[in-house]
Amino acid sequence: MRAKYLAVLLVLLAVFLAGCSGQQGKTATTPTPTPEKTPTPIPTPDIEKIKQEAAEEAIGEAMVLAINTHFDDPNTDEIEGVNVNPEFGCQGCHFGKEAVPRMIEWGKSAHGGHLLEVKEKDLSAAITEEIAPAWAHYDFKQKDRQPCQNCHTSTGFRNFASNPENYNPANNTFLLVGKQKELLYCWACHKVEDRSFQLRNPGKFEKIASYSEPAERIAAVPDLGAANLCMVCHSGRSSGAAIKAAGNIKTHFGAFNSHYLAAGGVIFKLLPYEFDGREYADYNPHESINDLCVACHMPKGSHEFKALKKEGDSIVITAYEETCKKCHGDEEELKATIEEREAQYKATLDYIQQLLANKGIYYDISAYPYFYPSPNPQDGRGPPNAFKDWPDKNTLGAAYNLNLFAHEPGAFVHNPKYVKQVLYDTIDFLDDGELNDSVLNNAPEKVKAFLEGAR
């Protein structure tokens, strides 16, 4: 074992001596140091230049957007952009420090024809009748559309809201050419002409109502302040009471059409056809909300006018914190309730449509005047082909309620109890021709759930 270790030591010694002998006779030299590399200098960014370029790019994009949203081709039926009123110029809409964010909101609203939503997808696109029928369906500035001008043009709305007692559509002067059309511009609601920019105020509803019955309820609508403006166009044009007063009902439904999105007429129980012998709820919790209409549809001054928004598969209650929370403590529960009731509401209207069809009266929401003796569009649509042979006023009233609520998708929120009662009675009459509380006998489950507690 020792011999083994000795052999290893000898080998190591030999290697060491060989190394030393190899260095003999050589002059030691100092190694040349490797020169240090000079680091490449990092340029200092020109912040001001970057800001300038970004600003120029933003201005360029803004100019492109402005050009494409401020011109309406007079040769097309569509609306390519805003028609600037030369009476006001830019200040017709560009006033106040909040003008830009408000106009962006407006451009995404129905009042603005969803203009910005259209342009965000394609700058060359235009507002069509399918996107915004309230503005693009007709050329509302034409003489044959004068009765529509106070709601379907900015010029007519401004003149009506400024002086409803003396309003005459024949005096509406449109600063447009060709087929150009107006949306509901800022100067329609705001007093731009005197530079106060305050809201116009047409006064209480009884001063602006386009129907005279039910007279007591019309007179009872309080002064709503800013919401008086909303009532001009969102209260309907004909009430169910007009059917009861009519001498002749053998005509197409256009003679009794309530018009569209008539939330104010539902909130204050002005529009629905009520069946004789029935009592209806006097109390509507939403009627007493301060700043009615504005509180829910313009939270924090928003000009999108949306009380609810869809985000994916769920909804957002835009006014929850400012308004709804005062009575509805659980936001998620309220959302779930709204979604459930909405589905039940639609099912209830579908069931009414089915009951009318059982009587040979077919509803087509896409074809004015909406009710026809045939379910097939190829058999003809429009007034000449419409259903006219109404057997009685209650049947006509039931059809009226269907059309009113089909065009007022938020009615089940605007006046919950009352709307349930009206729809309950509508079904109760249609299912067997009598008001005998037979509703729950054959109604689908969703309908039964919606009408629970109505009577």
TrEMBL record:
A GO term from the CC aspect: periplasmic space
Segments of skewed composition (Pro residues): 32-44
Signal as UniProt keyword: yes
Region annotated Disordered, chain positions: 24-45
Classification via SUPFAM superfamilies: Multiheme cytochromes
GO molecular function: nitrite reductase (cytochrome, ammonia-forming) activity
Keywords, sorted A to Z: Signal
Recorded superkingdom: Archaea
InterPro entries: Cyt_c552, Multihaem_cyt_sf, Multiheme_Cytochr_ET
PANTHER family noted in UniProt: DISSIMILATORY SULFITE REDUCTASE SIRA
Protein name: Polyheme membrane-associated cytochrome c
